[in-house]
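Q: What structure does this chain adopt?
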Amino acid sequence: MSKSVADIMTPNPVTVQPQTPLKEAIKLIAEKRISGLPVVNEAGKLVGVISETDLMWQEKGVDTPPYIMFLDSVIYLQNPARYDKDIHKALGQTVEEVMSDKPITIKPDKSLREAAQLLHEKEIRRLPVVDNEGKVVGIITRGDIVRAMASE
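A:
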């Protein structure tokens, strides 16, 4: 019988809340040697994910979007709304200002194959595992799947 997500996930993962100061989240990620954290509201429901990628904006900063001037008008070559979001990530002080707010999740009863497929297709490192109410019950990473494969 093949293993499910529940069989190999890390239960009760470390989480942060949207109002958590960014410095605290960065410290947690560094100390725990993890690549990201689920962001939950007071009820424990998943509202986002903060990852090393989200935090890179703090160091990298933001480049202005390319534009051209034409008859005294500015014409942006990229979406300026995306630039606004990037600025928030670069200047954010709380987790909420920097987190990705559309996290990809998986249920505990799903197969490892489904988890591996999601991780690969979406090019992400971790999947929050949520119950039917949207509460975080675990986390599964690429490394968890590789270790499960090695133990078979």
